[in-house]
Amino acid sequence: MTYSFADTLVKIWEMSGFATITWQQLVMILVSFVLIYLAIVKKFEPLLLLPIAFGMLLANMPMTGLMDGPLGDQPGGLLYYLYQGIELGIYPPLIFLGIGAMTDFAPLIARPSSLFLGAAAQFGIYIAFFIAIALGFSPEAAAAIGIIGGADGPTAIWLTSKLAQDLLPAIAIAAYSYMALIPMIQPPLMRLLTTKKEREVKMEQLREVSKTEKIVFPIVVTVLCILLLPSVAPLIGMLMLGNLLKESGVTERLSKTAQNELMNIVTIFLGITVGSKAVGETFLKPETLKIIALGLLAFAFSSIGGLLLGKLMYLLSGGKINPLIGSAGVSAVPMAARVSQVEGQKANPNNFLLMHAMGPNVAGVIGSAVAAGIFFALFGK
Amino acid sequence: MTYSFADTLVKIWEMSGFATITWQQLVMILVSFVLIYLAIVKKFEPLLLLPIAFGMLLANMPMTGLMDGPLGDQPGGLLYYLYQGIELGIYPPLIFLGIGAMTDFAPLIARPSSLFLGAAAQFGIYIAFFIAIALGFSPEAAAAIGIIGGADGPTAIWLTSKLAQDLLPAIAIAAYSYMALIPMIQPPLMRLLTTKKEREVKMEQLREVSKTEKIVFPIVVTVLCILLLPSVAPLIGMLMLGNLLKESGVTERLSKTAQNELMNIVTIFLGITVGSKAVGETFLKPETLKIIALGLLAFAFSSIGGLLLGKLMYLLSGGKINPLIGSAGVSAVPMAARVSQVEGQKANPNNFLLMHAMGPNVAGVIGSAVAAGIFFALFGK
Amino acid sequence: MTYSFADTLVKIWEMSGFATITWQQLVMILVSFVLIYLAIVKKFEPLLLLPIAFGMLLANMPMTGLMDGPLGDQPGGLLYYLYQGIELGIYPPLIFLGIGAMTDFAPLIARPSSLFLGAAAQFGIYIAFFIAIALGFSPEAAAAIGIIGGADGPTAIWLTSKLAQDLLPAIAIAAYSYMALIPMIQPPLMRLLTTKKEREVKMEQLREVSKTEKIVFPIVVTVLCILLLPSVAPLIGMLMLGNLLKESGVTERLSKTAQNELMNIVTIFLGITVGSKAVGETFLKPETLKIIALGLLAFAFSSIGGLLLGKLMYLLSGGKINPLIGSAGVSAVPMAARVSQVEGQKANPNNFLLMHAMGPNVAGVIGSAVAAGIFFALFGK
Amino acid sequence: MSLFESLQIALFGLVTVFAVLVALSIAISVESKIFNFFVKKKDAKPSAEPKEQTVKANLTDIIPGQLKLIDVDEKTAAMIMAIVSDESQIPLSELNFKYIKAID
Amino acid sequence: MSLFESLQIALFGLVTVFAVLVALSIAISVESKIFNFFVKKKDAKPSAEPKEQTVKANLTDIIPGQLKLIDVDEKTAAMIMAIVSDESQIPLSELNFKYIKAID
Amino acid sequence: MSLFESLQIALFGLVTVFAVLVALSIAISVESKIFNFFVKKKDAKPSAEPKEQTVKANLTDIIPGQLKLIDVDEKTAAMIMAIVSDESQIPLSELNFKYIKAID
Ligand code: NA
Ligand code: NA
Ligand code: NA
Fold it and tell me: Which ligand sits nearest to residue C119's alpha carbon?
């Protein structure tokens, strides 16, 4: 071939983004800016939302080939390879390993009835599932949308990557955004559904939990949950392994790495690749708006579920349980427990609900993992 | 399809572990509990034994699919993917990279004759190999069983993953358990084989080793060992690279990561996936008991080999070498060297053998890697 | 088969390195020793040169199979698997993620004209490319050789792995060696091309840069560069993501891991596998000497390009710009900026150019990534 | 999928979540009772280990409390707080120190 | 590839690098101007945050300066320097401390 | 595989391990001698670098020794020990400090 300056210029121009960018890509880039703003300025779960937003930005720059699979002997794009960790279901369990190593289940062990609240606060999952079906979503998509109500990012990403990959970015963004918005979503519902008298209840101090109980706990949970629901093994198994590494007291260096470096590496890769699925064609659809609306609904009804069971436990316990700890059952650790603390203190300045709300809060993590396991058992390939 | 509550319940039940668990799985779960107990309460090499035990627990929960390979376009299970690091021979060399970055070879450089003891203390490998053949094991299996006598976890895992994957969990568990039991296995043999006069010997202080010698050492070992025995390259190569990163003094950040975060990540993955191979069908066989017995034999005879050569060196040196440092040649760093120190001090309270025993101790790591290389050269695919 | 001691000995000998080593391998081993010496004693970019040299050593030991691909059901060698991170273009962008998280672009934001110098100091890339073509190299090889003049290791490795894998070790070694030699290459050119009066110029203090500008910067660079040149996305995208993680102030734990543990792990793997491509057959060719000569040329002309534009800016600014900061535009962060500082202070002891030179210095990183993107757009598969 | 079916699945799911978590809660209660039974047999105050007290400490820490300095000057205390904050990567504003005591 | 072609490509490449980096430089200038316009509207000294001052500090730090100790004894200062050096993995010889001040 | 064969292999293996490690031991001895020959030529005490002394220090450290404080108060020493223990991830009980000396 003869080389020509002009031809090269044309070739470069034709391969540049300016020549080929679509309006969908432009809109998605603007959406990524909004998410970056929310992550940095509004501090919306920035550890995940910032990488997600940046992944979205990269994925919507035209002609980069970042998400292309390998073709013949030509390797694929960077984000294609990093995405394999989601595709193959590896990243979410590793995040759970780190979360397990960071979680103190003592408040739950001291008051096992917290688990009831952690179950009730999955209520919104099923409300959203039901309405999603009514709106015409497929059962798989409806399940993935419903799981937003579990208020647990890795669980939502895990289930969606198994059942409805196209919805992955919308569901992940909704889940993390609403988790960040918990301090705005929950308080109105809390004041609506509880009386001042209920909110004033000071709870009995939790008993001390021995080291042995803390060590036996992750083993019992692993055995029981996975026997009952084998599909939940990757999530509950890794969560409890992380917790065992922490509580055993003999594997501190593994526990530290699981909750720091390993988790950070996986978080970066998980974030950018979840974001990179948000390309215009699949994201800019009415479905996305529906998902966002259904996600909010799911969060609200999960909170309501927790609060209502909290009220029932208030009654049955003769007023010993403050129903405000119920809404913490949605998980969103530790944000939701802090909201319970704040609302409790507003009603009674001497009321310290934080530790009491941590029980339902960590129970909610188990609860939504179980809910995800059920959906996967029903609709998984 | 029409959906029915009852049908779903039946489906869930049929897919639950309660309906499908076998007695082998129950037994294996109990075995995993015992190992967890040993790791946490008895502190049996918990960094590896705890993940191994938990992997065993997960692998024997029914119906989880954690170890399933990919099928069509459906991805495989989490532990299947993590296991690839063993299958492809990647994890053990990376562990060796970290060990190399943690090991100080100065006592060995100061007294190169330590290497004789590091060779003699591989004696048990060959005793166990011979008896294993006599018991009807295949040559590959016998070699993997013998290597338990090398008292070196990553080496044993590396060789077994190459020659006899079915025996992997039994051999790994035996290797790590006996390493933890060194303080019980060795002292009786030490007292049996040495006289009080021998044990009382105070050794000459080791000469100072210059920085240059420490830097040249890993390069000499790499070149010589791999030229003599190319199959040993992944183990010795990575061990010596790690040591070079440490001793060079110019790559401290690499050395730190190799011995901390990288090693911890690999240890977690290695542990759970080694454990996950321990499923009832392959583990609950008379072979496993034979392996455990042969492993103990291998440890004992390796210690004996080191002690006997120690006695010979005591004689040849005119009583300058304390034979107690011979048993440290099995490797099991630094446990075996500490045992030498303790026994020496029992005989003579002013006797400090620790540094003298560190030479044979680290020589034993090289020794068992060489032994593994020989077996791989003979029986490897 | 009947087993015979003699046969085994022969088999072991035949499979040993002594029987099979070639003179090319011997030479390469000696070359690796020289590189280890340069890395440790002369401190030539040891973080990469030491792993590269060790990888070269391992790759030239005979019969190890470390670089062999999988064959049938037999897995490949360790370095084959670790090399996939280069083959698939994963390691260099991850290194850039860490570099981005370590880089302060404030001096560049405060004086955007630094970018002109960062462009001019890529001059040597095109001189070397032109001469390489004249010497008979293929366009792909010439581009990879030219990029040495970008004075940026990961960029050079990324482009070479895409265009001319055979030249990878020679180009990587040349790039890192010359980066280490910047304090010897640049000063003579600086004194030759500038007058004492020019070198004495004290520059105005840089304005303060606000946090918002620092946060917006990586986003602007990402959007603009990738729109103009999509092929640059993996490098610029990851560099800017790293910088955003740092500057956002809300993802500190991700930023820390990106610049420490993740970067260290990738650096070790990148180094040994780049080195492992340096086998005698491909390395011991006249081309390698040509590459080394052309690399020096490229470095020199890149420095000259930066200095000449610096002189022009000195003139146009009425003597406000010290042309010495121009040579820092080659990148080689922060070495080249330090050289500008030292030379400036020699001319005028009260002259502090470091911060002023950091602008062109970090601009040079962007500049060479852009140059690599252009080459990839033109010659990439 | 019909609305009726989806309602059934939703109900089924919620019931199953409750079933699993209630089962778990029972298991934990039983386990705790067994454990405490054995502990009481052993001795009176075995769980008075420092680790156990942190739960209690956390509870009372929430009260925006006063920092007590025992045999430590303020400069040293400030340094310790800075080190702990840096090491633990928790901003100082979020760390609560009950007291800093010199090791004598 | 002919020499003439390669010369063209070299020129083209250099021009494109300049084009991209000049475009970037314009974009950054514009962005900074927009930003500073909004900031001036808001208030007079919003950028006086501690973080911003580090750029300035770095500039002047290069002067092989004297370390000022404000209400801190030398022993404490030495320890702080050692900790910072260790934590930041920068050799002490390469770290410049302007002053070490006690938090009162 | 016959027992005789396996015995041969076992012997062969043990002999080879010895051969490799003895070769290694000779190589290291030779290398050390060469190195020390060159060092003696250079000067008398080049290996008196602090790093080298750690081997010696380790040897004597085993004696449950006394900690000497040179120009350092106990509070500062305790803090240094805590920092070193934390940084090195070695429990305090396993760390032996010979002396802690102020940098004046
Ligand atoms: Na939840
Ligand atoms: Na050994
Ligand atoms: Na450059």
Answer: 3
Give the Å distance between the CA of A372 and the centre of ligand 1. Answer: 10
Over the stretch B209-245, which tens digit does the pLDDT of each residue have? Answer: 999 999 999 999 999 999 999 999 999 999 999 999 9
> Do residues C103 and C362 make contact, with C-beta atoms less than 8 angstroms apart?
yes
Return the pLDDT at B347. Answer: 93
- Answer for the pair B360, B325: CB distance below 8 angstroms, yes or no: yes
Q: Encode pLDDT of D15-41 as tens digits.
A: 999 999 999 999 999 988 888 887 776
Question: DSSP letter string over B278-320?
Answer: --HHHHSSHHHHHHHHHHHHHHHHHHHHHHHHHHHHHHHTTS-
Residues, Cβ < 5 Å to ion ligand 1:
A 150-152, 331, 364, 367-368
Q: What are phi and psi of A64, to 5 degrees?
A: -80, -25
For residue A197 the two structure tokens come to: 């008298």
Interchain pair B224, F23: CB under 8 A: yes
Instruction: Count CA atoms closer than 13 A to C117's CA, side-chain side.
Output: 35
Backbone angles phi, psi at B114, to 5 degrees: -55, -30
3-state secondary structure of F69: strand
Q: Which residues in chain C have Cβ-Cβ distances shorter than 8 Å to F8?
A: 3-5, 8
Q: Which ligand is nearest to the CA of B329?
A: 2
Phi-psi region of B61 (alpha: psi -120 to 50; beta: other; left: phi over 0): beta
Query: Hey, how many other C-beta atoms are within 10 angstroms of the C-beta on D44?
Result: 7
Q: Which helix (H) or strand (E) holds F28?
A: helix F3-42
Domain residue spans of chain B: 86-379
User: Please, what's the b/e burial string for E53-64 (b: 16 or more CB within 10 A of its CB; e: otherwise)?
Assistant: eebeebbebeee
What is the amino acid identity at position B85? G
Residue B89 DSSP class: T
How far apart CA F14 and CA B119 sit, in angstroms, is 8
Distance from CA of A349 to the nearest CA of B (A): 43
| Helix residue ranges, H only, C194-285 | 196-200, 211-228, 233-247, 252-259, 261-276, 280-283
Q: Whole-model pTM? A: 0.88
Residue that is written with structure tokens 């610029």 in the block: C236
Greatest pairwise CA separation for chain B in angstroms: 90
Q: Beta-carbon neighbour count of residue B310 at 10 Å?
A: 29
C21 backbone dihedrals φ, ψ, rounded to 5°: -65, 140
Mutate which of D2, D12, D18 to test chain B, going by most B C-beta atoms within 10 A?
A: D12
Q: Does the pLDDT of residue F77 top 70, yes or no?
A: no
Beta-bridge mates of residue A345: none
Kindly provide the ipTM of the predicted complex, given to two decimals.
0.84
Sign of CA dihedral F73, F75, F76, F78: positive
Tokens read off for C216: 């917006």
Sequence-distant (6+) residues with CB within 8 A of C122 are C149, C150, C302, C305, C329, C364, C367, C368, C370, C371, E14, E17
Calculate mean pLDDT across residues A234-241: 97
Sign of the CA dihedral with A84 first, then A88, A91, and A94 last: negative
Which chains does chain B touch, 3 or more C-beta pairs < 8 A? Answer: A, C, D, F
Cis peptide before C334 (omega within 30 of 0): yes
Q: What separation, in Å, do the N-terminal and C-terminal C-alpha atoms of chain F show?
A: 72
Ligand having the closest approach to the CA of C146: 3
Q: Which residues of C35-67 are buried (b: 16+ CB within 10 A; e: fewer)?
A: bbebbbeeebbbbbbbbbbbbbbbbbbbbbbbb
Find the helix packing angle between A354-379 and A335-347, rounded to 10°. Answer: 140
Residue contact D9–B8, C-beta within 8 A? yes
What type of residue sits at position D58? N
- Chain F residues with CB-CB distance to E78 below 8 A: 102-103
**DSSP for C49-80?**
HHHHHHHHHHHTSTT--TTPPPBTTB---HHH
